[in-house]
Amino acid sequence: MSDHQARYPIATMCELLGVSSSGYYAWVKRRPSRRAESDAALIEEIGAAHTASRGTYGAPRVHAELTEKGIRVGRKRVARLMSQAGLAGVSRRKFVTTTVKGDSRQAPDLIERNFTAAGPDRLWVADISYIPTWAGFLYLAVVLDACSRRIVGWSMATTLATQLVLDALNMALAMRRPRDVIHHSDQGSQYTSIEFGRRCRDAGVRPSMGSVGDAYDNAMCESFFATLECELLDRHRFKTQPDARSAVFTFIEGFYNPRRRHSSIGYLSPIDYERRLQRHQSTAIDPDAHQPGVVLAAVKDKPFGRPQEEAVLDRRCARRPHHRAGRDGRMAPPGAEPKNATKQRDQMTSNQTA
Question: Is the entire prediction scored with pTM above 0.85?
């Protein structure tokens, strides 16, 4: 009515809409409700968090950002306000593989789709992807730590040569200096080459390879490339290869490793998760430290990487196991007594009396 009052009388519009003119004027003079004012303030915070994530975060990660700032708000309310403000996260497209099987000897599969690691530098996963530019393809090789999801090594080149994966591995070795780490990849010709196998042997790295044509055997690294495509490559077009190199460097070292939140590690960034692991380990080693213990475990049970038996799932909805009771086998709550327990007890008593 306010938008059309220059063309139509307010009384006429009120009569057509079935409202009173006095009610309309009272509504115009009325202050916004506390809920509306709170929503307006939250929309500003949500917009700032969404902009800081380069427009990639959806409601779950924006909710985690607000929680870290001390703003207590429900996730569904965040989703509603994001929809109201026209904000949304990015979605992923179908992944295109670049694996070419080599004729060299393949390493055994040492993990068998179990991508859980008790600590950093115990399991690395590696793969190659491509970045389209107007000047041609640019290839990217990465080495990812399975515990923290951190990119510990990466390299870029214009060809799919063995030196591409060697540079990524050398960067990871120089940064982390691991001991007896497992390096898992596909059976691409770069990873089955003699040069790569010799470098792994000299550095004490245990190579591991999945089967051919099965993305689930290297699902964790495939997931990173899907994130890269979704949050960077699908949203930008690079004219030159130096522009692509600069953008990928900024994404990995400026956003992904230090800031991007991962649902599988409690909505922490890879660097923050490793810092929390170090604090937890130092607290466990020092008996005089009086700091509250922190439960660090995956919060989701991924289909491609189930947690180990000793892992603790940080889920409040975890249910206690139920026991079956009665002949019909129906579920009974823990501690419930079977239906025929009284009959068995009476029969045992009669036998002892006899």
Answer: no
